[in-house]
């Protein structure tokens, strides 16, 4: 199987795609969504946010859909949805493995 452009997502990448999976947004709305969704555990600064946005645009996980002055709105592409859903599945397997291990230890 050919390697995907970004094998494995960092936590910041995961939540950024989650924000755009939820709805098209501009950078400030993405950062607010992530902070709210994680109860403040993950706060994304502008440098990280715009670095990831540029990477994701390059590999076609997202696309710019509107520009109003400096405000740019992005949406997730089908390729980005697929990458995010694959990561969700990978994380489900990780949690399942962890729960199974905990049960083995407690038994």
What does this structure look like?
The protein is an alpha+beta fold and 107 residues long. It is built from four helices and three strands. It has a three-stranded antiparallel sheet. Strand 2 and strand 3 form a beta hairpin. Helix 1 crosses helix 2 and helix 1 packs across helix 4. The radius of gyration is 16 Å and the shape is elongated. It starts with 10 loop residues before the first helix and ends with a helix. The mean pLDDT is 93.
Topology:
Layout lengths: L10 H12 L2 E2 H11 L8 H13 L3 E7 L2 E6 L1 H29 L1
Antiparallel strand pairs: 1-3, 2-3
Low-confidence stretches: none
Measure the end-to-end span: 39 Å
Query: How many β-strand stretches?
Result: 3
Rg over CA atoms, rounded to whole Å, is 16 Å
How much of the sequence lies in strands comes to 5-15%
Please provide the ordered H/E string of secondary-structure elements: HEHHEEH
Report the major sheet.
3 strands, antiparallel
**Which word captures the global form?**
elongated
Structural class: alpha+beta
Average predicted confidence as pLDDT: 93
Number of helices: 4
Summarize the structure.
This protein is α+β, with helices and mostly antiparallel strands and about 110 residues long. About 60% of the residues lie in helices and about 15% in strands.
Describe this protein with a few key phrases.
107 residues; alpha+beta; three-stranded antiparallel beta sheet; elongated
């Amino acid at each position: 199987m050919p390697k995907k452009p970004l094998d494995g997502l960092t936590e910041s990448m995961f939540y950024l795609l989650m924000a755009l999976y939820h709805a098209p947004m501009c950078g400030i709305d993405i950062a607010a969504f992530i902070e709210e969704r994680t109860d403040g555990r993950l706060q994304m600064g502008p440098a990280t946010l715009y670095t990831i946005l540029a990477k994701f645009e390059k590999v076609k996980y997202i696309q710019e859909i509107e520009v109003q002055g400096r405000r740019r709105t992005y949406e997730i592409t089908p390729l980005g949805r697929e990458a995010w859903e694959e990561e969700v599945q990978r994380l489900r397997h990780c949690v399942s493995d962890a729960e199974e291990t905990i049960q083995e230890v407690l038994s």
